[in-house]
Write a structure and sequence with these properties.
- By secondary structure, the protein is mainly alpha-helical.
- It has a single domain, classed as Arc Repressor Mutant, subunit A (Orthogonal Bundle), CATH 1.10.10.
- It is built from six helices and two strands, in the order αβααβααα.
- Strands 1-2 form a two-stranded parallel ribbon.
- Helix 2 packs across helix 3.
- The longest helix has 13 residues.
- It is globular.
- It starts with a helix and ends with a helix.
């Protein structure tokens, strides 16, 4: 799952559910949250701030939510309230079946 988070380019976001589906685990959005909590701490190479809730909503609160907003804005992502326009900034992963066929 973290490998797919690393594939989200600067200036783009994906949802927890989108990362789960791209990882071959549709419906496992909560596992993405868990993976980011354990492997996406500050200082790691995982761009955890590029993963948002369903509908483009920033779900983090407090300092983490503030940091996520700062990081996304520094990458050029516009945030209206607590929401990001997924049509404009959403990252489309290649289908899991395509990845598994392309990569050994």
């Amino acid at each position: 799952m973290l490998a797919n988070v690393r594939r989200i380019p600067k200036g783009r976001v994906s949802t927890y559910g989108g990362v789960a589906a791209a990882s071959g685990h549709p419906g496992a959005a909560r596992q993405v949250v868990w993976a980011l909590r354990t492997g996406g701490e500050s200082g790691s190479d995982v761009p955890w701030h590029r993963v948002v809730g369903a509908g483009g909503r920033i779900r983090l609160t407090g300092e983490s939510g503030f940091e996520q907003r700062l990081r996304l804005r520094s990458e050029g992502v516009a945030i209206a309230g607590d929401k990001i326009d997924l049509k404009r900034y959403g990252h489309a992963f290649r289908a899991f079946s395509q990845l598994s066929q392309d990569e050994p």
